[in-house]
C-alpha cells in the first residue's frame, strides 16, 4: 500500500496489534517499574487511570490504561452547558427519543460540505437507537468539516466509542495518547473519554461515524475460517506517546496574559465546556489496553465462496460490538472491498432479502456492484438505510445485468469500497437526516425496484 510523507514524520509513530497491552513513553524513565501508582511517580508526573470497563470486568474484556501526565485531567473549573452547534448535536438525550421510526427504504445523495464547521460542529446525527445514559445502543453520523479545530481546544465524548470512516479529506487527530493520521480507506476508533482535536492537513473533510454507547469493538470470531483472515490483529495501529511541555502549554507566557484551553464534552448528547490553564495533551507516558487505534481497509483479507452462492455479508465484518445475546451485535462494521467472484451458476450480487438487522450503508469511493441504477444513484459521500425487515436488494438494472452475465471469474469493486453499519436495533432517523439535510432521494424504492421484470413462466421453463 502506498504511504505519504506524513507517515515518516516523527509525530506519526505507531504500535501494531489489536486488543493488546501496550506501553509507550515520550521520555526515558517516565514509566514506573513494578507498580502503577508509586508514592512519587517518576519525573514529577501524576498517575491517572483511564477505565473503559468496570474494574471487575473479566480479564479478557478489561480495558484500562494508566496515564503519566504533567497535570491530571481533573484540574479545571466546573463544566457549564453550551449552545448546540447544530440542530442534531448538543440537544440532549431527547435526540434519541424524537427519532422517526419508519419502515421505508431510504437513500441519501452526497451530504454537503460545510466550509465553516470544524469537526465537532460539523458532526450531524442521521440515525440511531438506545439511551446513552443507560449505555445502550448506538448512533450514526455524517461529519463535514471545512476547518481545523483550534490548537487550544479539545473534545471528548462521555457517551461512547466513536468509529470514524473518512470519505474525503485527511484527519490529523491529536489524542491524549498520541497522534493518528487517518485518510480515506482508513478507519479509526477513539474510545469513550479520550480527549482529542482534529486537524485538516489537506483541506475540507467529509465522512461517516458510528458512536457505540454499549461495550467496545472487537474482532469477530473466525470459527471454521481458522486463525487468519478478514481483519488481522497485527494490522491495527495505536499511537505512541506525544506531549506538550513548553511555557504556552501551562499558561506560563506572561507577554499577552495566561493561555487557556477549552475542553468540550458530549454528555448524553448535550455539550458542556470548561476552560483550563494547561494543555490536555500532557501525557508523557502510558500503558494499558484502552487506547485509540486505526486500521487500513486495504489490508482486509476478503473471504468468499469459490464454489456457488453469495455468502452472507457477515463474512465481510471488520469490527463487531456484541450485544448480550451471543452472535448478535449492537453494531458491526462491514466492508465491501475489491474482490474476485467465481461462483458457478450463481447470482453474484447480494440477493434480495429482509433482515432482522438494520443496515446503514455508505460508499467511500467508486461504485457498488448491486446499486448501479436508480435516479440519483448510490454514490460516494451518500448513504442508504434499510431498517429492520425492510426488503431490499439489487436495483432493476443491476439485477438484469447479473441475471444475464457470462459467469467467468470476475473482479468486482476495483477502485471501490462500500461499507455498512449493521445493528440488531430498529433505528430511527433524525429530523436532520429526514428533512433538514435535504438529501433524501424521493421515490428511492420506486426508482430502484419499481421496474423489476416478471420472469415467471407459469410453471414452465
UniProtKB/TrEMBL annotation:
Keywords: Dioxygenase, Iron, Metal-binding, Oxidoreductase. Residues 299-455 form the Homogentisate 1,2-dioxygenase C-terminal domain. Pathway: Amino-acid degradation; L-phenylalanine degradation; acetoacetate and fumarate from L-phenylalanine: step 4/6. SUPFAM superfamilies: RmlC-like cupins (SSF51182). Residues 13-297 form the Homogentisate 1,2-dioxygenase N-terminal domain. Gene3D superfamilies: Jelly Rolls. Its EC number is 1.13.11.5. Pfam families: HgmA_C, HgmA_N. Its cofactor is Fe cation. Belongs to the homogentisate dioxygenase family. PANTHER family: HOMOGENTISATE 1,2-DIOXYGENASE. This is homogentisate 1,2-dioxygenase. The lineage of its organism: Eukaryota, Fungi, Dikarya, Ascomycota, Pezizomycotina.
Amino acid at each position: 500500500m502506498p504511504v505519504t510523507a506524513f507517515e515518516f514524520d516523527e509525530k506519526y509513530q505507531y504500535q501494531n496489534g489489536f486488543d493488546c497491552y501496550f506501553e509507550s513513553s515520550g521520555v526515558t524513565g517516565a514509566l514506573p517499574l513494578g507498580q502503577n501508582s508509586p508514592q512519587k511517580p517518576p519525573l514529577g508526573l501524576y498517575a491517572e487511570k483511564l477505565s473503559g470497563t468496570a474494574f471487575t470486568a473479566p480479564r479478557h474484556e478489561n480495558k484500562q490504561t494508566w496515564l503519566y501526565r504533567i497535570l491530571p485531567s481533573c484540574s479545571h473549573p466546573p463544566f457549564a452547558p453550551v449552545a448546540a452547534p447544530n440542530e442534531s448535536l448538543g440537544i440532549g438525550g431527547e435526540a434519541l427519543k424524537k427519532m422517526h421510526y419508519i419502515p421505508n427504504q431510504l437513500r441519501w445523495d452526497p451530504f454537503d460540505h460545510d466550509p465553516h464547521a470544524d469537526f465537532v460542529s460539523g458532526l450531524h446525527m442521521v440515525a440511531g437507537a438506545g439511551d446513552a445514559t443507560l449505555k445502550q445502543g448506538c448512533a450514526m453520523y455524517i461529519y463535514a468539516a471545512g476547518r481545523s479545530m483550534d490548537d487550544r481546544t479539545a473534545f471528548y465524548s462521555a457517551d461512547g466509542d466513536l468509529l470514524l470512516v473518512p470519505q474525503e479529506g485527511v484527519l490529523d487527530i491529536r489524542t491524549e495518547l498520541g497522534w493518528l493520521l487517518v485518510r480515506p480507506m482508513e478507519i479509526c476508533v477513539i474510545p469513550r473519554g479520550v480527549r482529542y482535536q482534529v486537524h485538516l492537513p489537506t483541506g475540507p473533510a467529509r465522512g461517516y461515524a458510528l458512536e457505540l454507547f454499549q461495550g467496545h469493538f472487537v474482532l469477530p470470531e473466525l470459527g471454521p475460517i481458522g486463525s487468519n483472515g478478514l481483519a488481522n490483529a497485527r494490522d491495527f495501529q495505536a499511537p505512541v506517546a506525544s506531549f506538550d511541555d513548553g511555557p504556552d502549554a501551562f499558561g506560563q507566557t506572561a507577554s499577552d496574559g495566561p493561555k487557556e484551553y477549552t475542553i468540550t464534552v458530549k454528555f448524553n448528547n448535550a455539550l458542556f465546556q470548561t476552560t483550563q490553564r494547561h494543555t490536555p495533551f500532557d501525557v508523557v507516558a502510558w500503558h494499558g489496553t484502552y487506547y485509540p487505534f486505526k486500521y487500513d481497509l486495504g489490508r482486509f483479507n476478503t473471504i468468499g465462496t469459490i464454489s456457488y452462492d453469495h455468502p452472507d455479508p457477515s463474512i465481510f465484518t471488520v469490527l463487531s460490538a456484541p450485544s448480550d445475546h451471543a452472535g448478535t451485535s449492537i453494531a458491526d462494521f462491514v466492508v465491501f472491498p475489491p474482490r474476485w467472484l467465481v461462483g458457478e451458476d450463481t447470482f453474484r450480487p447480494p440477493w434480495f432479502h429482509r433482515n432482522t438487522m438494520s443496515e446503514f450503508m455508505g460508499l467511500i469511493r467508486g461504485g457498488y456492484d448491486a446499486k448501479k441504477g436508480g435516479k440519483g444513484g448510490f454514490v460516494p459521500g451518500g448513504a442508504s438505510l434499510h431498517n429492520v425487515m425492510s426488503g431490499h436488494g439489487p436495483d432493476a438494472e443491476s439485477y438484469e445485468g447479473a441475471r444475464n452475465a457470462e459467469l467467468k471469474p470476475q473482479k468486482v469493486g476495483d477502485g471501490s469500497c462500500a461499507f455498512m453499519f449493521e445493528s440488531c436495533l430498529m433505528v430511527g432517523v433524525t429530523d436532520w437526516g429526514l428533512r433538514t439535510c435535504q438529501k433524501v432521494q424521493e421515490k428511492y424504492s420506486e426508482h430502484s425496484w419499481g421496474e423489476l421484470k416478471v420472469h415467471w413462466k407459469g410453471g414452465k421453463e
